[in-house]
Amino acid sequence: PSEKDACWKEKALADANYELCASLSGTEAKDACYAYYAGQKKIAQACQPISSQNARDTCILNIAKAHVSTEECSLISSASVKNACLKAVAILSKNPSACAQITVESEKTACNLQVAKSTGKTEYCSTLPTASMQSDCLLQIAVSQKNVNVCDSIPLFDSKNKCYKDVALVLKNIALCDKVLDSNVQQVLPM
Predict the structure, then answer these.
(1) What would the DSSP string read from start to end of 26-77?
(2) Is the pTM of this model over 0.85?
(3) What's the burial of 112, exposed, middle or buried (CB within 10 Å: 0-12/13-18/19+)?
(4) Which residues of 122-151 are buried (b: 16+ CB within 10 A; e: fewer)?
(5) The dihedral of CA 36, 37, 40, 42: what is its sign?
(6) What gap in Å lies between CA 5 and CA 20, rounded to an integer?
(7) What is the pLDDT along the chain (191 residues), one digit of tens a residue?
(8) Which of 26, 179, 180, 188 has its CA 20 to 30 A from that of 79?
């Protein structure tokens, strides 16, 4: 960027007026100014004049993440970037409600799983669509929290046994092997 463009960009920031970016020469310089201003001031509206949809959506995504707010996500044009925005906000806020707004089922499921794992809240596992996914979610939380009691709520027999075994290994507590209901699983525990 030219010195003149750099000067206008800094003036826009100093005057808190992103419309000054329009004074720059060339679309690329203007877009960079709008994105810079939006990023510095954390104002999604400043992303709107950016000419490239992808760059505009990325600019808004960054503001939404900074605010940890789904409101900005709704300003995004691209469905895939909007879904990524909602997932990021859900994970940052540790609240799966943003996952519910995701339009692709597999991404919604991945979002709910990631929020459940990052928060360690077992009740979030129940939002997953299948017993297998719920079991896997609970197993991962049990192992990460080193909490054998979480295994008790796993709906699938094989997953429950694996959970007891995995927590027993993590805790190096052979007494937990008694909770394993399958003798074949008990035999593979290298204690």
Answers:
(1) SHHHHHHHHHHHHHHHT-GGGGTT-SSHHHHHHHHHHHHHHHT-HHHHTT--
(2) no
(3) buried
(4) bebbebbeeeebbbbbbbbbbbeeebbebb
(5) negative
(6) 10
(7) 578 777 877 888 788 788 888 888 889 888 988 998 899 899 999 999 999 999 999 999 999 999 999 999 999 999 999 999 999 999 999 999 999 999 999 999 999 999 999 999 999 998 899 999 999 999 999 999 999 999 999 989 999 999 999 999 999 998 888 888 865 544 444 44
(8) 26
Structure tokens at 8: 């206008």
Q: Say which residue the tokens 């995504």 belong to.
A: 61
Place of tokens 């054998």: 148
Q: Which two tokens stand for residue 22?
A: 């329009």
Length of the chain: 191
Q: Which amino acid is at 65?
A: K
